[in-house]
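User: Watch each token:
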Amino acid sequence: MDLLVGLSLMAVSAGGVFAGFKGSLKAWTIAQQYAGEQHNARTVLDWATRRLRMAGNSFAGTAIDVAKADDIVFFADTNDNGVAECHRLYLNTVERVVYTYVGEAASCATQVGEPMSANVEAQTLAVTALTLRYFDGSGNLLTPLPLTQAQRTVVRRVELTIAANGLQFLPPFTLSTQVFIR
């Protein structure tokens, strides 16, 4: 009888330890998922910031070729070889993934490119919005979008906002930055 009581107490204790371990493992998994979701969105923001800052570098014409609310095409020499490349950053609204294209200095406004925000590391991360706002040298917001040729020549600052929705969040989280073009 004492042996049965002892075994029963040990089984209950082992179940409690297992439940505690399982809860800790779930919390760790959620934290990893959260970090992956934010990292994925920050990667897009970092890439865009670095490239946009170089818009017009080693390019004689208008640096920004297309300026829409969720799509920008610009020319810049980002690899320091003296030749400006064409860069495109846009949101694929069907896949809910941010794409980028870098190619020869010709119009790349219709090029598809490669996905920037993957949903592999962060599982179901979806970029719900990519918002670009354009400002002149005096800080005035340039509207309406898409910008005209004359407006694109005076763009000196771009505000970039990414809203993403991941597995761990019901509402989307938002990351934003402002880029001053050289």
About this structure: The chain is about 30% helix and 30% strand. The first strand starts at residue 64 and ends at 67.
